[in-house]
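User: Okay, second chain of the day. Same drill as before: sequence in, structure tokens out.
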Amino acid sequence: MLDLFAGVGGLSEGFSQADSRYRAVRAVELEPRAAAGYALNHATGVFVGSIQDWLATEQTPEVDLVIGGPPCQGFSALGARRVDDERNLLWRHYAEAVVRASPAYFVLENVPQFYSSAQFDMFQEMTRPGGILEDYAITPHLANAAEYGTAQIRRRVIVIGHRRDLSDPGFPEGNPDRAKWPKLRDVIAGFPLPGEPLRGRVHELPDGKPSPGPFRSDELHVARTYSDLSKRRFKNIPYGGNRFDLEDDLKCEAWKNHSSGSGDVMGRLRWEEPSVTIRTEFTKPEKGRYLHPVHHRAISPHEGARIQGFPDDYLFVGPITQIVKQIGNAVPIPLGRAIGKHLLSSIPS
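Assistant: Same drill. Structure tokens below.
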């Protein structure tokens, strides 16, 4: 495999769990601490830098499979969206890498908005006669990670590309029965109260700079420091509740003036349901429904990693805020594992 926009390696982890024959021979990742974590977990050489620089300076290895998820912030349903956001155009470099690597198949993961964007239309155009991907056909699939064994509702578009001389492999069938989806209690029930962040551990990054780490996932059950006002808010939000349940004296002015809108802000998760989508700031209750079901705190980095499907011994490098981003940006491991198992029978031996 060739893993592009590899992050800390969630997609590679899912594929390697599917079958040990999946092996990344090269990974490309811009963020040095995420790249360091990838290298520790997958014993694979990682190019630390942009995909543009990698394509310009290294020979692309020929592989059976290319995987990766170009950054999706430009397509995100949250906040402002710009059609000309440069992050929306990184799929072009992904396509160039596919041509050079000449795989049998490729897997591209992104947010659902990518499927309905003009960029996806242009991507599809590249697979038509005369396009740089003319030797490939693509099929987009909308997937909810909860249907594939993840204790999290996370909807993504997965584009599967295949050489035209091979058949379309299709997509693994998920379980649409919500009653059968993994529950939050299945992955984080019984955790003790978080401890203090670990200190004094230093990892040397590829550029020689020091960074905290490495830390096992189960060493990241650590707490944030909250203000007295935040603590009072947490104590007054009932099970499954949110900011609308607070008295006015505990609401910020913006909440007082808006009695409608997202019910996830300062919301409590529920034991009997999957988590909401784990994003890059899931330790901040003001960013979404990230309050622990019963404790008066946000879920910890370790709990977020568990929800994403990371093994307890998975290694992370960086300060806590960066590790939380790495976890939130990852493709859920159970979803990657399901795709890997499904594709295995199609890849030519």
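The domain at 2-175+332-344 is CATH 3.40.50.150 (Rossmann fold).

User: Thanks, on to the next one.
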